Amino acid sequence: MKIVDLFQRQQHHRWIMLGRDACKPDNIIDTNQYLICHHGQAILLDPGGIELFAPMLEALVKIMPLEDIHYLFASHQDPDIISSLGLWDQVLEDAKLYSPWLWEGFIRHFGMERTEFVPIADTGGELDLLGLKLQFIPAHYLHSSGNMNVYDPVAKILFSGDIGAALEPVDSPLFVEDFDSHISKMQYFHQRWMSSETAKMDWIKRVRQLDIEMLCPQHGRIFRGAYVQRFLDWFEALPVGIAITVK
Questions:
Q1: First CA to last CA distance, the chain
Q2: What UniProt keywords apply to this chain's record, in alphabetical order (predicted)?
Q3: What phi and psi values does residue 150 have, to the nearest 5 degrees?
Q4: For a tag site, which of 19, 107, 121, 199 has the least CB within 10 Å?
């Protein structure tokens, strides 16, 4: 599993991507996990499926003590992002899981004996990580009916979940370098999995108000610099919810 520093300010604020696990089974989709560390406390975003727990644990202990991970975040209920919860529940002490309120009853099926579930309201919210105000940005119906992104105003990074995702081999580049050639890798995914034009436009309106230097999806490559706005323009013009038009 690769460990990639995306942002670092001195020694107290870091964004780390963990993913591209070459040892994963071929029939399991590749996922990106993200760790935000701030002044010795950390939150793990979409920690992955149960099959990724062992390599994720091995990678994390190389970065920081496990007792510094105080928070988990699940953008929605899918197993590829949170089915490892029951195992994290055993190794993290006094952790809190932030996730949309809608999915508590579903997510608890993955195992939560010690971890505290903290529901995020439909309107979003905020987590104060020792002075770092992480923002929970609503992204409902994109693709899940209860869905959240995470925005860091210091690093200027948006964790966008499945928005911006592309399903690619684990040896693919980390960043989008040629937007036009990347479209074919993400177009059908967005048209099929994103269900609502209204929800799409609401999300775009919210996100355009943020200062974003990096847009980090849960699958595939990361958008940075001018490619962030390029993606927003492309997604805004893309028809979604195409399954209902299939005859």
A1: 42
A2: Hydrolase, Plasmid
A3: -125, 130
A4: 121
pLDDT at 246 over 70: no
Q: Which amino acid is at 59?
A: A
What are the respective helix, strand and coil percentages of the chain, to the nearest 5? 30, 30, 35
Specify the pTM.
Answer: 0.96
Report how far apart, in Å, the C-alpha atoms of 7 and of each of 82, 157, 199, 236 are.
24, 9, 30, 28
Per-residue pLDDT at 243:
80
Residues in the chain: 247
Asked if 113 and 91 touch (Cβ cutoff 8 Å), the reply is no
Half-sphere CA count of 118, side-chain side, radius 13 A: 14
Residue 102 belongs to what domain range? 2-245
Tokens at residue 81, please? 């992002």
Max distance between CA atoms of the chain, in angstroms, equals 56
Closest CA to 194 of 134, 153, 150, 234: 234
CATH number of domain containing 121:
3.60.15.10
Q: What is the dihedral of CA 23, 99, 62, 10, to 10 degrees?
A: 130
- Six-digit token string for 50: 């149960």
Q: The tokens of 27 are what?
A: 């029939």
Which is nearest to 152 in space by CA: 23, 10, 1, 45? 45
The rounded percent of the chain whose pLDDT value lies above 90 is 89
- The dihedral region occupied by 110, where left means phi > 0, alpha psi between -120 and 50, and beta the remainder, is alpha
Cβ–Cβ under 8 Å, residues 117 and 161: no
pLDDT tens across 198-243, in order?
Answer: 999 999 999 999 999 999 999 999 999 999 999 999 999 999 998 8
How many separate domains does the chain show?
Answer: 1
